[in-house]
Design brief:
single chain; about 300 residues; 9 helices; 15 strands; Metallo-beta-lactamase, Chain A; 8-stranded mixed sheet; 7-stranded mixed sheet; globular; alpha/beta
């Protein structure tokens, strides 16, 4: 009897160990850069570097949905974020960050000055940072996060501009993504052309036109739209008009309303965009489906 119990215990332990090993293998860093504009209420961008480091930019207003999405994408044993970023002072970016910090404390936080005008929200955010002992700073221009092969750089922290935010560049080999969701229109219009063209993915406010000098300088291959600033500045242009303005083909313009979660993948040589859904429009559906298939092949191949 004792021997039977011992064998059963050993078998159970072996199964548990095997399950944990399989879970670790499934969620291990895959050597790819992931930049996912999550399908949430508001703007939330999850960045996973090839070495497994994680960065969350903004959050939106729906904390529960954001926490669930992070739980689906991060390893189950991962209970912290390496870096949390608040790209501008819009209070619609902040509520979900508070909820995330309760589940995933961050090693550090970068934010754009000033703090949100909503005093109660700003106070709750500051209190949560104090509770989790998260160091918070306004990153100087040129600040970098990441390893030598894949980095996030602050192009402009907006500190000397009105209504401005953080403008960021992510690089992995020839793959370049510019995150401009927190930037103001004036800030974008006066940017130096310091980013080599072409830009693989431009995350850009839906509220702004695409006829500025940065489009010619960056030559974006794909544009994914952020929406927080749009609530106070409604857009005046259709997707077709934006394609003409930017020079980027229509099928390379992405919105979460049409595409759900929008994710850029790169192995440091090739890059692609995969979405959680494809538009029903025939003109866009086929291109979206083909891009998703290409991305699945890249995922299977890894680095």
């Amino acid at each position: 009897m004792r021997r039977s119990r011992l064998i059963s215990a050993l078998l159970l332990a072996a199964c548990l160990a095997g399950g944990l090993a399989l879970a670790w293998w499934w969620h291990r860093p895959d050597g790819l850069l992931h930049i996912a504009l999550l399908d949430t209420d508001g703007d939330a961008i999850l960045i996973q570097l090839p070495n497994g480091a994680t960065v969350l930019v903004d959050g939106g207003t729906d904390g529960e949905t954001l926490v669930l999405q992070l739980g689906e994408r991060l390893p189950f044993w991962r209970r912290t974020l390496d870096l949390l970023i608040l790209s501008d002072a819009n209070p619609e970016r902040l509520p979900a960050q508070l909820r995330v910090l309760q589940h995933y404390p961050a090693d550090q936080l970068w934010y754009a000055a000033p703090l949100p005008a909503d005093a109660a929200l700003a106070q709750a955010w500051a209190q949560q940072l104090s509770t989790t002992r998260t160091p918070a700073t306004i990153p100087p221009n040129g600040s970098r996060f990441g390893a030598a092969s894949a980095t996030l750089t602050i192009l402009d922290n907006g500190a000397d501009k009105r209504d401005a935010g953080l403008l960021m560049l992510i690089e992995y080999g020839p793959t370049r993504a510019v995150l401009a969701g927190g930037a103001s229109a004036a800030q974008l219009a006066t940017l130096p052309a310091s980013v080599p063209a072409p830009v693989t993915l431009l995350a850009y406010p839906w509220a702004y036109a695409l006829d500025g000098p940065q489009m010619q300088a960056w030559q974006p291959q794909a544009i994914a739209y952020t929406h927080t600033r749009s609530r106070s500045s409604p857009a005046q242009h259709s997707l077709a008009e934006r394609a003409t303005q930017s020079g980027t083909p229509l099928q390379r313009h992405y919105t979460r309303a049409l595409h759900g979660t929008i994710e850029l993948l790169s192995n440091g040589r090739d890059a692609c965009i995969i979405t959680s859904q494809c538009p029903a429009y025939a003109q866009l559906h086929a291109a979206c489906h083909a891009s998703n298939q290409h991305c699945r092949a890249l995922l299977q191949g890894g680095n």
